[in-house]
Amino acid sequence: MKWYEFSIHPVTLRVSGWSDGLLVESNFTGAWEQITDIGNTMLFPNEKRLISSSLQSLQQTIPELIRHTVQTFAIDQYRLLRLAALSTHAQQLCLNNPMLYWLWSRTIDLEAIETAADLDTHPLLLKQHQLFLNLLGEGAADWVKKQPKAALKVLHKVTLESGDYRELEAIYHLFSDESFYQARLFPRLYPYLEYNLLNCTISNLWRLNIRREYDELPVTEKKIYRSKSLTEIGVMIHDIRRMSALFDDGDPLKKIKRASSFKELTQLHDAVVENFNRHQHTYLKKLIFPIPPILGNQQIEPITTGYELLREGETMNHCVASYESKVMEGTSYIYRINEPERATLELGLDRSHPYISQIRGKFNATVQQATVDSIETWINNKYNE
Question: Which residues, including other chains, have CB under 8 Å from residue 60's CB and lie 6 or more apart?
Answer without folding.
Answer: none
